[in-house]
Amino acid sequence: MKLSGFPTEGAVPRFNPKPAESGTVMSDIDTGTDDEVIEVGTLPLDAWHRAQGARMVPFAGYHMPIQYEGIVAEHEWTRTSVGLFDVSHMGQLLLSGPDLDAAVEGVLPIDLSTLKLGQQRYSLLLDDEGGVLDDLMVSRWPEHLYLVVNGATKWDDIGHLREHLPDEITLNHLEDRALLALQGPKAADALARHATGEYSLSDLTFMKFGRFTLAGHEVTIARAGYTGEDGFEISLPADAAEEIATLLCGEPEVKPIGLGARDSLRLEAGLPLYGHDLSPETSPIEAGLVFGINKRRRTEGGYPGAERINREIAEGTARKWVGLRLEGRMPAREGAEVFAGDTRVGTVTSGGFSPSLGYPIAMAYVAAEHAATGTALEIEVRNKRLAATVVQAPFVPHRYYRGSK
Amino acid sequence: MARYFTDEHEWIDVDGDNATVGITDYAQGQLGDIVFVELPATGTMLEKGGDAAVVESVKAASDVYAPISGEVMETNDALEDDPALVNTSPEEDGWFFKMTVGDKGELEGLMDAKAYKAFCDEL
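Predict the joint structure of the above. Result:
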């Protein structure tokens, strides 16, 4: 068997020319990076991960931990306790300048008039045809807008924003900051022992953020994540990353979790992964991300791709991104074709075995007439047809914290 | 009975004209949690180095190659209900299939346990 390229991940969007950003696709074990001469960077927690026993792989241009004790164990730990994820490869950007909101609304389909201080919102970077260049988070800070973008796309994003924002807008890439995600049902318990801030963590509900002090360091904490669980994303000074990671993992509920489980957790949560489920060839409406086009913008337009996207909102799309539950135990991976009888009706964009559910699941773009929940379809894997049913995503219900009743 | 190893991390126990094939402990450790094993049908003619089986871990599908040429005589039904046997007992209960030894000459060039261990230590 081929083991030379242990499954690694890192979407390589075709429009991305930077060699340092390349990697292999996680689903392709046969494609190693061994023979490629690529520059792979290190992140602030590199030595810390290795000391925790992580297996490191190149991902989005950096050495990153794919697993510590094992993907299934880490997955289950996050669903029942707390996982600490190092996501410092992601881009943290700070925008400021005159008429900032109007400038940013020119590049994102967001309504910033309804984004209040201390709130975070999901948005999309779109090309002129409405294809997805990246998905991102936008937060309002007192004098700034703070963006978190995907690691594999951040250099292109910065170039795109610099090109399309007015010169008066300042764009700072916060390369001196690390980003840690603390995810799981006991995340608030663990974090509350160490974080003090503007207000109590119990008032920090889903998609809000605030300034806090953690082990004497000033950090910002957003209540958000990529697992479907309650949790936090902590932006902190890079030189405090080891201290804070060690502090948090010293809590009995917390263990470090690798990229492998991060992927299986987000798949169960039905959350798209850029470069796999989203690309310049997909529109956010096909992907069911209409909430990323804020209401006012659907009528006013004025953002890249608005013509196509607003038309798709009104008229629907020819294909839709759906969840699929597979029969049996054989998983279908990215690229597998979906059939209704003899007719090819779609393609899997993400798929794998669900540790929480005990059966394989997948996300796929399928023709709209076959996208209704309950539709029976087939997926072709190695010349076999696997029975699959369209199901409502998320596969595992989200458990976000929206405040105590 | 003699056990041989390939540089693709399969093991093969040879007993006269029959052999049993599986993947090594090193391989299962690299793959992680195995969730499905696709085995060849009984009667399949395998060619040395050709595709013989597929192992699905949580993250990826990996091909398993035939260490030698021969005919598949039996497959391990236990893997259907409990594919994790490949993780817990890769070189015993987690065997994949039994096959005929088509050409004993193909065993030359495979490694013994000591050579395979040295091979893995280099990886």
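Chain A has two domains: 66-254+270-317, 318-396.
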